[in-house]
Amino acid sequence: MIETLPGPSPHDFIWAGGIEDTFVPQTRPGHRALDEYELMGHYDHWREDLALARNLGLQALRWGVPWYRVEPAQGEFDWHWTDQVIPYLVEELGITPMIDLMHYGCPFWLHHEFANPDYPGAVATYAEAFARRYGRLVHWYTPLNEPIVNALMCGRRGLWPPYMRGQAGYVRIMMQLAKGIIATVERLKHVTPEAIMVHVDAAGITRAARPDLEPLAVEDQLMRFLSYDLVSGMVTQEHDRYTWLVRHGAFPDDLAAFVRHPIRLDVLGLNFYPQWSTRQLFFDQRGRLAYRKIEREGAGFAEMIADYYQRYQAPVIVTETSAYGPESVRSSWLAAAVDAVKQLRSQGVPVLGYTWFPLFTMIDWRYRMGRGPVERYRLELGLFRLEDPPEPRWTRTPVASQLQSYISDPETAVGYLRVGATGATR
């Protein structure tokens, strides 16, 4: 089991996978429950699913806990399922879990979800209960997956509970998430001081279609840093986003509290998908500002990682990446991304791990607002494809063998981390 940050040797590099674990269980007219484990049968087939990670030679797995199931009533925990899965993953398979404590949704009893003033304390209490039960087996945690996406879906677009909209909704949710992350980290570190926090967010790039839009593209990039800046105490009155936050509902006393009581970013977890993570700001035919997806080959991937590292001086793990399209597209992206990691390491940028996410077929989030059967929403990003009828359950793709070849020869794949070139160790 990986208990400390890996060293510069390629043989220390962490090769990881992940199982899509979005949990948005609340329903309303026109919105179905979205629980990826249930929709993909993971609650019943977890042994088979997890064993595939070991067969690939992966050392670690991003795996999420459905908070709404393990704490069905406030303060009452049901660990029956996780008591089976986590020991199996660690003790039988020898895989290090990187536990997603919060991969979106809240439990039913937490009314108004993230907007509830009690959310930060509630999520921290759940995290502490988990750590006290599994601290012997779990050393790596993600306190909350993708604050940016959470704030967007729950706060700005009103698609997930608590269904807030606009800039004020975005700020309200982001502030609550930041408070929850800080409270969670403090509780986890109190129980297991040696625990490693992987702070995962949706990384990306905004380009400008013309020079006079460049300031807006820069502004977009600053927004991508917001969750990290908040929890690490960087949002002082001089911060680029300070006045914007206050104008849209952030209370200055709360911002000052973040500055007084920051947390250290143990590891930056960066999620990047080549088809979706780079966008261009342009004027559409009506003269309005708009965005379009560009650089679908992921050209800015290495540049982006270097920018995050320079800003925070924290080691990096690529915590989600894959590609949408035929197997040839996934294969090309895997080769390009691993090569980018090798180049970054040779330059002293401490990229410590790489995660193909998800390993398996997942269900497109559009299922939540759709009407068709679940099979219609299958999304193929993984190394294994779900068969129908499921006998066998999974078909291995050639991309799985390609990743396995990198794992077996890490010196060629990712090389040594050049220590000291850019302050690569902390």
The pLDDT mean sits at 96
CATH C-level label: Alpha Beta
What count of structural domains? 1
Any idea of the CATH topology? Answer: TIM Barrel
* Superfamily (CATH H level) name: Glycosidases
Distance between the termini: 22 Å
Structural class: alpha/beta
- Major pleated sheet: 8 strands, parallel, barrel
Q: Give the strand tally.
A: 17
In the CATH hierarchy, the architecture is Alpha-Beta Barrel
Description:
The model is unreliable at 422-426 (pLDDT under 50). The chain is α/β, with parallel strands linked by helices and 426 residues long. The protein contains 15 helices and 17 strands. It has a single domain (10-413), classed as Glycosidases (TIM Barrel, Alpha-Beta Barrel). The two termini are 22 Å apart.
Brief summary:
The protein has 426 residues and is α/β, with parallel strands linked by helices.
What are the salient characteristics of this protein?
single chain, 426 residues, TIM Barrel, eight-stranded parallel beta barrel, three-stranded mixed beta sheet, disordered C terminus
Write the layout of secondary structure elements.
Blueprint: E1 14-18, E2 23-24, E3 34-35, H1 36-39, H2 42-56, E4 60-64, H3 67-70, H4 80-92, E5 96-100, H5 119-134, E6 140-142, H6 147-156, H7 166-191, E7 196-202, E8 205-208, H8 214-224, H9 226-231, H10 242-247, H11 252-260, E9 267-271, E10 278-283, E11 289-293, H12 301-312, E12 316-320, H13 327-346, E13 351-356, E14 362-363, E15 378-379, E16 384-386, E17 394-396, H14 398-408, H15 410-413
Parallel strand pairs: 1-4, 1-13, 4-5, 5-6, 6-7, 7-9, 8-10, 9-12, 12-13
Antiparallel strand pairs: 2-3, 10-11, 14-15, 16-17
Helix pairs in contact: 2-4, 5-7, 6-7, 12-13, 13-14
